[in-house]
Automatic annotation (TrEMBL), chains A, B:
It comes from the Eukaryota. The lineage of its organism: Eukaryota, Fungi, Dikarya, Ascomycota, Pezizomycotina. This is Flavin-nucleotide-binding protein. InterPro entries: Pyridox_Oxase-rel, Split_barrel_FMN-bd. SUPFAM superfamilies: FMN-binding split barrel. It comes from Patellaria atrata CBS 101060.
Length: 273, 273
């Protein structure tokens, strides 16, 4: 990574809708870290070229806790249903002297349905990131503990310290964290009002009958519901504040996105995304 | 597909958290058809086994409009950023005499954050589906037109007929629909209250200090925002009703999911999912 952008190489270069593409590291990291479920792809049997995709929870982070590890760039730490198959494939790749299991991580946030005059101009407002790299199982105990904390707090900030920690030996053994070193990454974003072609926007009959605009879309949190053995009467601030702040910020983002100028128009005006 | 379940073969058999797995076709189809963005994975260069994942809009459907096509089972129709690379790979696979490009389609709906006593027992309420198959480009004009309608109406029901249609020749040429014939499919679901281990639920000090419960999560639609060249004053029913009904149904689903018995408890009681 140089100058906070990912290198543009054939593997990650976006050729379609180029004006919506970005290689900005902050953007890509923000999409990954704010998406509640990541889609992780790998090839279980290289002779078939048939990939599988698993939903996982993950987070980008840079582990600084071990002086022997100094990578300078963040990795993606993945937790959740790290299947035994996935574990075995990662181990086998390392044993073969490879960097790890070839992996792709995708994160997408839908921000709105863009309804235009014709089906062809319909679109989504969205932010997406796709990262490729090589994955290994985290073996270093310090890094594993750090990653467990990172991933838990990615669901609800400060959650880790508000639970029964540290994990005991059995939990440390049974927890598996997958770490992907990033080789390529790219992002895409679409925001703004609908955008139709001139052949339609000049037709009065169509303008008079077809509603055009954007339905804002966001992931909303409902009021937290206490479980059957909960004894803590008041919803703790680390949960209550998070729900309130996120709902406000998310609704504001997608609503603001409905009103921005359309991407092609901005591009023609020479504006950056 | 037999008896409305997908066959359980090594490629799709879920070995971890088996009690949350399903091969029920209705469940799998419902997750795919109700997820606003699908994650589609393929291998651009088979010599690397490094997959890429693209966010796309898609829908399961069975095309009956052409007597020469009688497949008996639905396929996944995908639209959106069908890149020229993806097109080329699908064409090349067919030219080599293969069924199509090996593809994996994943759909995930997050329904809640399950906050338990320890980080290890934290979980999501969710529904997910993963489908594998072989993809080709839809060439048949009738099927293509039908699929464009299917995909447009999957975003907002009845939208297609409320826009300027049919697509003109240029639009038919530039629109590309990818069709995946399904070979394997599986689904997973988690719903219910938190579930901790006995070693923690018997500890008074932990029960007295750690809040446990579920934060409901759903994809919410905001009030539709008219675009700059919209002239239709009233938001049409096909949009307004959809927004209202979906928000109600989605909030109800994820809220109900927060209160259901925990999966392992139900499994021990011999209940099916």
């Amino acid at each position: 990574m140089e100058n906070d952008t990912y290198p543009k190489i054939p593997a990650n270069t976006i050729n379609r809708y180029k004006h919506q593409a970005t290689y900005d590291a902050d953007f890509i990291h923000s999409v990954v870290n704010n998406t509640s479920v990541l889609h992780v792809s790998f090839v279980p049997d290289p002779s078939t070229a048939l990939p599988i995709v698993l939903p996982m929870i993950g987070q980008l982070g840079l582990y600084l806790g071990n002086e022997t590890i100094d990578e300078g760039a963040p990795s993606v730490y993945l937790h959740g249903y790290v299947s035994s198959r996935l574990m075995r494939l990662a181990d086998e790749a390392v044993k073969r002297g490879e960097e790890g299991l070839p992996l792709c991580v995708a994160a997408t946030k839908v921000d709105g349905f863009v309804l235009s005059l014709t089906p062809n101009s319909h679109n989504y407002n969205y932010r997406s990131a796709v990262l490729q790299g090589y994955a290994t199982i985290v073996e270093d105990v310090g890094e594993k503990l750090w990653a467990m904390q990172l991933v838990t707090n990615s669901v609800v900030p400060d959650r880790y310290d508000n639970t029964r920690v540290p994990p005991d030996n059995a939990e440390m053994q049974s927890t598996r964290i997958l770490k992907m070193k990033i080789k390529t990454a790219s992002g895409k974003v679409r925001e703004g009002v609908p955008e139709d072609e001139r052949k339609d926007t000049k037709r009065e009959d169509i303008l008079d009958t077809v509603w055009t605009g954007v339905i804002p879309v966001y992931e909303k949190f409902g009021d937290p519901v206490p479980g059957p053995y909960n004894r803590v009467k008041k919803i703790p601030d680390h949960i209550g504040d998070f729900v309130k702040e996120q709902n406000k910020a998310r609704e504001e983002y997608c609503t603001a996105a409905t009103k921005k100028p359309a991407p092609l128009k901005r591009k023609k005006a020479g504006e950056d995304l």
